[in-house]
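Sequence of Transcriptional regulator, TetR family (Goodfellowiella coeruleoviolacea).
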Amino acid sequence: MPKRVDHEARRRQIASAVWRLASTRGLDGVGLRDVAAEAGISLGQLQHYFSSKNELFTFALKHMEQLATNRITERVQALSATPSPRLVLRECLAEMLALDDNSRTGVLAQIAYFVRAIHDEQLRGYAQQGTPELRRFFAGLLREGVARGEVPADRDPDSEAMLLIGLIDGLNSYLLLGVHTAEQALRLVDYHLANLFSRAPRPRPAEEPAG
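Predicted 3D structure, token representation.
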């Protein structure tokens, strides 16, 4: 009886091979044959799932983003029952930093995608979709911080959310270059959040006695 293949697992296996190659040599010099060899499968098997490099690279990018979302969700769910907006933001930002070997590989792969997307209209169109969604999520947390009295009301949540994304991009550059250590990068994140969430939360109104 022929062995049954988990096709979705095989596609994820191929996507992981793309990330590893992208993190070490970029994407421009990577062909389907290279990816097949890295994934430990034949070129024919790879072409059964992906007929072109762009189709493959787009799927790998989507899968990378989904895994990142899953990791952030797991970190947030591991917090207290009702974490503050500041704590949720801190966990999200920490997950986006290249703090260990796994996250470093992911960030290097993202940079490879960024370089290719500048000149690849199809890939750029997809890559652009993730930032507005992340910005809206961060802005929502900041609006909650304003409502709780933790963030000054004159701060614009949408602008501040974009600055947070830019902060992580900049810190990752310096982490990869060895200018900052992981501890220094996290201290800078905490420093920025302390300035952003510069007010004590408003006390919750006392509950009225029943009856």
